[in-house]
C-alpha cells in the first residue's frame, strides 16, 4: 500500500513524464523503496535528496504508527522526526559513501518493508484507528 500511495503521488506530480510509464511495470503492489527511486528520478532529485527523503519517510512512518499504538501527542511524534535530523544526515552520508552493494547499510528499512508485507496477510487488525 505504501508503494501504491507513492505511485499515485508521482503520477499527480509529473503526469507527463515518460519515466512515469515505468511505474506500470512494477505491478499492483510495488515496493516502496523501488517507487521512491523512480519518484526521485522523475522529480529530478539528487542521490542525496533521495536518501534523505527515504530516511524521513521511514521516520515519519514509525512516528505515525506510534500515534495508533500509544497515547502520544502528535506534536511529540513530529518532534521525534525533527529530532532525528542529525542521525538522518549521518545516515545519508554513510549511504552515499557506499561503492559496493556488499557495503550497503541496510539495518532497518528492509525489515519495515517485510513487516508491511506480513501485515497484508494478517487477519487481525494491527491498529485501532
Describe the structure.
The radius of gyration is 16 Å and the shape is globular. The mean pLDDT is 83. With 129 residues, the chain is an all-alpha fold. It is built from six helices and no strands. It has helices at residues 2-13, 32-42, 47-69, 74-83, 85-96, 109-121.
Write the layout of secondary structure elements.
Layout: H1 2-13, H2 32-42, H3 47-69, H4 74-83, H5 85-96, H6 109-121
Helix pairs in contact: 1-2, 2-3, 3-4, 3-5
SSE pattern, N- to C-terminal = HHHHHH
The profile of the biggest β sheet is: none
**What's the alpha carbon Rg, rounded to whole Å?**
16 Å
The helix fraction, in percent, is 55-70%
Characteristics of this structure?
globular, 0% strand, single chain, 129 residues, mainly alpha
Describe what is shown at a glance:
With 129 residues, the chain is mostly helical. It has helices spanning 2-13, 32-42, 47-69, 74-83, 85-96, 109-121.
Amino acid at each position: 500500500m505504501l508503494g501504491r500511495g507513492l505511485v499515485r503521488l508521482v503520477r499527480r506530480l509529473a503526469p507527463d513524464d515518460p519515466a512515469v510509464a515505468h511505474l506500470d511495470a512494477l505491478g499492483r503492489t510495488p515496493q516502496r523503496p523501488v517507487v521512491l527511486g523512480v519518484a526521485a528520478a522523475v522529480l529530478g532529485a539528487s542521490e542525496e535528496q533521495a536518501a534523505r527523503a527515504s530516511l524521513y519517510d521511514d521516520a515519519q512512518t514509525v512516528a505515525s504508527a506510534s500515534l495508533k499504538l500509544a497515547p502520544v501527542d502528535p506534536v511529540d511524534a513530529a518532534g521525534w522526526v525533527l529530532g532525528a535530523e542529525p542521525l538522518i544526515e549521518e545516515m545519508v552520508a554513510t549511504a552515499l559513501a557506499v561503492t559496493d552493494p556488499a557495503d550497503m547499510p541496510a539495518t532497518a528499512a528492509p525489515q519495515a518493508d517485510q513487516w508491511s508485507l506480513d501485515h497484508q496477510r494478517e487477519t487481525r487488525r494491527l491498529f485501532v484507528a
